[in-house]
């Protein structure tokens, strides 16, 4: 399997969830959306779909 670089932006995830939930009739708070984005990021890490890298 080949490796590719993928950049995950939790703010982009948060905006996606916000729009999707609004479209489905929910009114999430900003804090709830940020938590969902963080949980999604952690899920991707746990499933080893992504790997977290830190730049110096």
Automatic annotation (TrEMBL):
Against Pfam families, the record matches this protein to: YozD
Organism, by scientific name, is Siminovitchia acidinfaciens
Which InterPro entries would you find in this protein's record? Answer: YozD
How is this protein named in the record? YozD family protein
Report the superkingdom from the record: Bacteria
């Amino acid at each position: 399997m080949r490796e590719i670089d993928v950049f995950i932006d939790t703010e982009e995830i948060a905006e996606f969830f916000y729009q999707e939930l609004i479209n489905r009739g929910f009114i999430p708070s900003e804090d709830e959306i940020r938590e969902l984005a963080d949980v999604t990021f952690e899920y991707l890490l746990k499933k080893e779909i992504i790997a977290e890298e830190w730049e110096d």
